[in-house]
Design goal:
CATH class of chain B: Mainly Alpha
Number of helices of chain B: 13
Membrane topology (chain A): Multi-pass membrane protein
Helix content of chain A: 55-70%
Strand content of chain B: under 5%
Largest sheet of chain B: 2 strands, antiparallel
CATH topology of chain B: ABC transporter involved in vitamin B12 uptake, BtuC
Protein name (chain A): ABC transporter permease
CATH topology of chain A: ABC transporter involved in vitamin B12 uptake, BtuC
Oligomer: heterodimer
Main location (chain A): membrane
Distance between the termini of chain B: 5 Å
InterPro entries (chain A): ABC_transp_permease
Largest interface: A-B, 48 and 47 residues
CATH architecture of chain A: Orthogonal Bundle
Shape of chain B: globular
Strand content of chain A: under 5%
CATH class of chain A: Mainly Alpha
Number of domains of chain B: 1
GO molecular function, one term (chain A): transmembrane transporter activity
Number of domains of chain A: 1
Number of helices of chain A: 12
């Protein structure tokens, strides 16, 4: 098949949307945290914990949706840990974030080994199955790509709409955005900046964990060590690329996923002339490139990474 | 709840805080040991015994501490100037690559010349690798945390490509590994027949040198000033961006030495499992040392001891050795809280 023809096949776009789904969840999660003024570098570890928690719930006999819920709760718990250290205590968001990633990852691996001491190959579960939407799914290419996915992918798109609606159309969203831009103004309204930020980080982290769980209970059917493989860091780049806007970040995630799906197919048709590692490097290199491209016009939330203390100016 | 600044405590009290952080870590992780159905006291005893209970254990701990001293120093230097280098893992691997490139026979030189030449080249390569993210930070405002993190993945894939391509050992039976470095490029063992090698001595010397640079030189002063308050530093005439570049060069060079020391002193060749995350663990080492270069030695030995001890423990008790990673990560978080409490008092209302 020709390298360009791939772009017009439905199966390619179905794969791209599937690859985008975990990124969409986690990018929305990080976006909420950062809009409230907190950089959450715990994302990589929280996704790992979510991937395990979701899978393990289903493996232990739970419902698939119970898996999603447990993952979200585990994520929120790590989010609260992160928020407690960075918001009221005002500790370095860089150091705490890396610490939360190390802790969530190591706790996950510890629990996995404790729960399944003798296992050599990871056990499989019955994951979410594709649920074609009648009518819409028969539209060529676009309909197939968007509407023959699993329920969790549909939820990813719903989460973008929900995040956008809450951020721009509700008082809570206004308070979150203001906490990231001008926290004293929030406090002047009698709203607690600490409360808003902690809530935002908890909810954002829950979304990150669901993104992780997508990998184990929708895209694949088991849990592997190192399966997040830098996706969390890529999501941080996607938030910047999307100028902290849910819609733009969604487009970024889909473009990125399309590129990722494309490199896998190029790898197959290149016939091994180019080492496969070159293709695997591309997503990471692309993320760095995207950061450089948008850096000049990036307008960070003004209070991002600046701790807030009541009564201080 | 609010934080109130308080006067800096005495040195003795300051030294108590890491101990308090470690004590808290032990209490928290003993919950996990209980969950695993073992007794915390006996497990921690086994860890301590496995880390320092015999000459073999102690030498193994010091061997494991060697790369951690290098990466810990790299992070301590960078974080002091608030340059968030999370890419020590990549810099370490590049150090390994350069060691293999120059040390497998390309340069037919006697040991006394060859080893210094390799070290300089290794440091240059690591420095250049971090210079990229540093330039992106100062010129374009791209956050170095994300770029250094992403570079870790890129460099590891690059190394994997080299090990299956140009650096592949023809006698390696298809295994992705490089050739062994020649005898002249090997760091000798400190004690005949044991694993501890001269890399440990180089690591100690580097710690002292870095301490001198940080405390006694203009560069060290500028780095601390930039980290403390970059606007203020600019105001008194410090070239902030240039200082950040120098910091990046020093930090990247130090991290790359970890790769050199592991290849040249311990493993002999480059493989994809050269480092089980020494670059990331270096962050914990540096924070436990409160970014003090001499403290890095002590905290690297401590962290190495946990890993070595936990390996030995998990063979005896039925507790997964990942408990070591949990302990190390927890101690990072308890330590940053402890450091905060040296400077602030928490007022509840």
């Amino acid at each position: 098949m020709d390298a360009l023809d791939i772009l017009f096949t439905a199966s390619f776009w179905v794969a791209a949307i599937r690859i985008a789904s975990p990124l969409i969840f986690a990018t929305m999660g990080e976006l909420i945290c950062e809009r409230a003024g907190v950089l959450n570098l715990g994302i990589e570890g929280i996704m790992t914990a979510g991937a395990f928690a979701g899978w393990f719930t289903v493996y232990s006999g739970g419902d698939l949706w119970a898996g999603v819920l447990v993952a979200a709760l585990v994520g929120a718990m790590f989010g609260l840990l992160h928020a407690t250290l960075t918001v009221p205590l005002g500790l370095s968001q860089h150091v705490v974030g890396i610490g939360v990633t190390l802790l969530a990852t190591s706790l996950t691996y510890f629990t996995y080994r404790l729960a399944l001491p003798e296992v050599t190959s990871p056990p499989k579960i019955e994951p979410f199955q594709p649920l074609p939407i009648p009518g819409l799914s028969s539209i060529p290419v676009v309909g197939e790509a968007l509407f023959t996915q699993t329920p969790l992918t549909y939820l990813a798109f719903v989460s973008v709409a929900a995040v956008a609606w809450i951020l721009y159309r509700t008082p809570v969203g206004l308070a979150v955005r203001a906490a990231g831009e001008n926290p004293s103004a929030v406090e002047a309204q009698g709203i607690s900046v600490t409360g808003i930020r902690m809530g935002a980080v908890a909810v954002g982290s829950a979304l990150m964990a669901v993104g992780g769980a997508f990998l184990t209970i929708s895209a694949f059917n088991s849990f592997f060590f190192q399966m997040i493989n830098g996706r969390g860091w890529i999501c941080i780049a996607l938030v910047v690329f999307g100028s902290w806007r849910p819609g733009k970040a969604l487009i970024g995630a889909i473009l990125f996923a399309a590129f990722d799906a494309y490199q896998v197919r190029l790898q197959q048709i290149s016939g091994g002339i180019v080492p496969y590692q070159v293709f695997l490097m591309m997503p990471y290199a692309l993320s760095i490139l995207a950061l450089i491209l948008v850096a000049r016009r990036a307008t960070y939330p003004k209070a991002l990474m600046i701790p807030y203390q009541k009564g201080e100016r | 709840m609010r934080l109130e600044p308080k006067p800096a405590p005495s040195l003795a009290v300051t030294l108590l805080f890491p101990l308090a952080a470690i004590a808290t870590t032990l209490m928290l992780t003993s919950l996990l040991v209980l969950a695993a159905g073992a007794s915390p006291l006996s497990v921690f005893y086994l860890v301590a015994k496995g880390a320092a209970g015999s000459q073999f254990a102690l030498l193994e701990t010091l061997t494991r501490a060697t790369p951690l001293i290098f990466t810990g120093l790299a992070i301590a230097v960078a974080f002091r100037a608030k340059l968030w280098n999370i890419g020590a893992e990549a810099q370490l691997y590049i150090g390994g690559v350069v060691t293999v490139l120059l040390g497998t026979g390309a340069l037919p030189l006697p040991s006394v010349i060859l080893i210094p030449v390799i070290m300089v080249a290794v440091m240059a390569a690591g420095a250049l690798l971090l210079l990229g993210p540093a330039v992106l930070k100062t010129r374009f405002g791209v956050d170095e945390v994300v770029t250094t993190l992403l570079l870790n993945f890129i460099v590891l894939l690059f190394v994997s490509m080299l090990l299956q391509g140009v650096l592949k050992d023809p006698m390696g039976l298809g295994w992705p590994q490089s050739q062994k470095v020649i005898a002249e490029a090997q760091l000798p063992r400190l004690i005949q027949g044991k694993r501890l090698h001269y890399g440990f001595v180089i690591a100690l010397a580097s710690a002292v040198l870095v301490w001198v640079v940080m405390k006694k030189t203009v560069l060290g002063y500028e780095m601390r000033a930039v980290g403390h308050n970059s606007e203020g530093a600019r105001f008194v005439g410090i070239l902030v961006n240039r200082t950040l570049m120098k910091t990046a060069l020093l930090s990247g060079g130090l991290a790359a030495l970890a790769g050199f020391s592991e290849v040249s002193g311990l493993k002999g060749n480059l493989t994809l499992d050269l480092s089980p995350g020494y670059g990331y663990t270096g962050i914990v080492v540096a924070m436990l040392a409160m970014l003090n270069p001499l403290g890095v030695i002590a905290s690297a030995v401590f962290v190495a001891g946990i890993f070595v001890g936990a390996d030995a423990m998990s063979r005896a008790a039925k507790v997964p050795s990942y408990i070591a990673d949990v302990m190390v990560a927890t101690s990072l978080l308890t330590m940053v809280v402890a450091i905060l409490l040296t400077r602030f008092r928490i007022r509840w209302r």
